[in-house]
Amino acid sequence: MNVILIPGFWLGGDSWAEVVPSLEAAGLTVHTPTLQGLGSVDDDRSGVTLASQTAEVVALVDELDPADELVLVGHSGGGAIIHGAVDARPDRVARAIYVDSGPTPEGVAINERLDATGADAPLPPWEEFGDADLRDLSDEQLSWFRSIAVPEPARVAHDPQQLFDTARYAVPITLISSTFTRAEIDGAIAAGVPYFSEVPLMERATIVELPTGHWPQFTKPAELAQAILDAVGR
């Protein structure tokens, strides 16, 4: 089984470093791409869009042996990217797993309010994040995170999601939720919150609570790895 892990904003593929060993020990083949614009603070992000990053993931899907099962995992903003890839290749994806994120609907941006300077949207000051986001992150981890953070391509945050194929609804999904409870997600769905509007349309959706901050790959990597393994039946 191939598993592609897509990080959230400001992070490269190496942000999954503490999660990968447990997945590989369970026999999974793990791919952790660093998407365009996130390799270095010096990268040119002017041409990077939500659609172009999604196309990168679709290209990786197309490179893998179709005889092998494929699972997509997206953290935070990476959830929109994997959902776009599911939409593009619904016949190739066995399951999509959204880590403190969700299947971003048509026309909805990941974060249209994220401040940007030109093509760059840098990591905001910690004061702009909620307490739930930062839960369990030590001062040392916060300092380290800021030291490795790369500006997010602004159009990845600001562009509306584009979806085309309702066959995506047949792909099973798992939401591993760290900053929302199951009850809060159910309430948001019932209230018609746009961000969660795709969830009730999915034929098979599972919600798993993993209480911690917004970056469980840093705060609870072993527990996150186990939640992913549970989702794929390993």
TrEMBL record:
Q: Which residues form the AB hydrolase-1 domain?
A: 3-227
A single MF term (Gene Ontology): hydrolase activity
Q: Which UniProt keywords apply?
A: Hydrolase
SUPFAM superfamilies annotated for this entry? Answer: alpha/beta-Hydrolases
What is the recorded name of this protein? Alpha/beta hydrolase
Q: Which organism is it from?
A: Herbiconiux daphne
